[in-house]
Amino acid sequence: MKGWIIYEKKDAEKNIAFISRLTTELAKYNIEARLVFAGNEQKKETPSFAINRSRDYKIAERLENKGVKVFNESNLTKLSNDKKRMHQFFDGKVPQMKLVEEYPFVLKSVDGHGGHEVFMVGSREEEDKAVLALGTKDYIKQEVCSDLGKDKRVYIVGNKVVSSILREADDFRSNYSLGGKATVCDLDTNELEIVDKILKIINIDYAGIDLIYNNGKPVFNEIEDPVGAKMLYENTDIDIVEIFVKYIIDNL
After folding, report:
1. Is 223 exposed, middle or buried (0-12, 13-18, 19+ CB in 10 A)?
2. In sequence order, which ranges of the chain are alpha helices (DSSP H)?
3. Which residue, 187, 190, 245, 178, is CA-closest to 217?
């Protein structure tokens, strides 16, 4: 059995340790997995399965149409990598910050990740600067939550919670990659309720669910696909790759 680990080339260079862990763990099950760059996959023979870390749902769709099992499925990748689509999909299903036009608001590109292309906007001048910085990219304007610089990343494998980490920062963005502080913690009843509702609506092979806080209450922010593992490895003894690979084997 042979599998693909699909990445954009620029992202693969930053995630070589994660890719190595995947290939090593899959080799324990006598599975040969190799890195394939997005855009080159059509030139190669069809794999037994694929781990799509490219954020491109069309790649997953092409493989699924050939009968290939893809982790994550194309519908999750399509949904989670477009913030406007994701907000519309979960509207009325779980609590979210509203899309607004009045200041202040948080302006985000629909396909940004890692805390990049996110702007706190309080005036027409700031809005014009943010829009100019995004160029032709589509964006959303979202109500500002009251509890800034704080969110919780919930790691999901096989539609089950593996761990959760509270991220806090002085900046309004709490991303670990931007210097946020990470603390392992449990989910309370309200947080679990939101996560459970999401997992009943859509299947997640391996991704993160991010919660933010408004007046002390959890609010769904986004699904992070493909989620990074650095924060888990640096703050816990959980081997998320081992868990993910075991899930893959059980579902092939």
Report:
1. buried
2. 9-14, 16-27, 57-65, 74-80, 83-90, 124-134, 189-201, 230-235, 240-250
3. 190
Write the pLDDT tens digit of every residue in 33-79.
999 999 988 787 899 999 999 999 999 999 999 999 999 999 999 99
Using CA atoms, how far apart are residues 165 and 186, in angstroms rounded to an integer? 8
C-alpha–C-alpha distance, residues 14 and 30, integer Å: 26
Residues 140, 106: contact at Cβ < 8 Å? no
Closest CA to 161 of 243, 94, 236: 243
Predicted structure pTM score: 0.94
Structure tokens at 143: 């109500």
d(CA 12, CA 28): 22
The letter for the amino acid at 217 is K
Q: Which amino acid is at 163?
A: S
